[in-house]
Structures are given as C-alpha cells and as structure tokens.
Amino acid sequence: MIHKLRNVPVREMIRALEQDGFQYKRRKGSQRVYRHPDGRRVVIHKTTKGTVLFNFWL
C-alpha cells in the first residue's frame, strides 16, 4: 500500500533527522546526504518551493 507523504519544509526535515542521530555527510547541488551511525542513509532533494523529496536506504 502506498501512503501519501505531505510536503515537509527542508529545515523541519533536517531538524528531525539530526534529532534522530543522522549526521550531515556531503552535498552535491540540491542533494544533501545524511548518514546514521548504524549505516542508514537519507538523501534529501530540495525543491524550488523549499520542500523536500527524499529517498531512504535502509
């Protein structure tokens, strides 16, 4: 089942990731990569509206 995700402001998403233990690793263009000490990675794609599209690698 596919769930719809709401648009999330970039700052709100980054704050939530950092509170969960993710650390900023690198950036290329509009993509920011965050990594958790247990190996999980998150790539945040910033849109022109200031919201994010994101992919998870678990």
How are the elements arranged and paired?
Blueprint: H1 10-19, E1 23-28, E2 31-35, E3 41-46, E4 52-57
Antiparallel strand pairs: 1-2, 2-3, 3-4
Plain-language structure description:
The protein is of the alpha+beta class. The chain has one domain (10-57). It has one helix at 10-19; strands spanning 23-28, 31-35, 41-46, 52-57. The chain has a 4-stranded antiparallel β-sheet, with helices on one face. A hairpin with a 2-residue loop joins strand 1 and strand 2 (31-35). The mean pLDDT is 79.
Question: Gist?
Answer:
It is built from 1 helix and 4 strands. It has 58 residues and is of the alpha+beta class. The protein has one domain.
Query: With helices defined by DSSP (H or I, 4 residues minimum), what is the helix count?
Result: 1
Unreliable segments of 5+ consecutive residues? none
Question: How widely separated are the two ends?
Answer: 19 Å
Approximate helicity band: 10-25%
Number of separate structural domains: 1
The overall pLDDT average reads: 79
Q: Please write the string of helix (H) and strand (E) elements.
A: HEEEE
* Largest beta-sheet characterization: 4 strands, antiparallel
Number of strands: 4
Q: What fraction of the residues are assigned to beta strands by DSSP?
A: 35-45%
Structural class: alpha+beta
